[in-house]
Amino acid sequence: MFLKFPVKNLLGKLFSVIFLVLSLLLLVLACFQFYLGMAAQKELINIFVQSINTTIISLAIFELGIGISKEYAAAEDEENIFQVIRRTITRFVGTVCIALVLESLIMIIKYSQLDLAGNLYYPVAILTGTSVLLLSLGVFLHFTRDEGRDRSHRVEAPIWSVPAARWRTPRCEVPAAAAGVDKRHH
Length: 186
Description:
By secondary structure, the protein is mainly alpha-helical. Helices cover 70% and strands 0% of the residues. The longest helix is centred in the N-terminal third of the chain and has 36 residues. It starts with a helix and ends in a 7-residue tail after the last helix.
């Protein structure tokens, strides 16, 4: 029992460092790809596409490393672990969705330039998969919104019990000086 806690934290920190180093290496690779593309005088759009793809993958791995780091540090900080995991999953899935959407858009541009309209099924499939992933994230966030919160201080009032006066926009009274009215002449 004594060895489980330190080993868990040690492995969590080790994996976090591994992912952060991989992210840094991918960022260096993206810069190197950009430099090589410019030196070889390749088409500018292809250079940007390749560099951006590598950078987005680097960002996703960075988010994973940070998430792992926060998850294993949360036990030490006594922060609510459910909220940490919820934030981590949201950030990671969001980053992955951005990467997938960008990849599919890049594929659409590339296929349209090369007149390969028959291959547009692949980017459409990626966009469909990304949509399902985002919908799944929304369902996850909906069902876990109250998980891990202190419910003792929470008071729920039905929407119809809130007075309608709170929903009206407040009236703004403009001071006479700001409106350009001179009270001395009235």
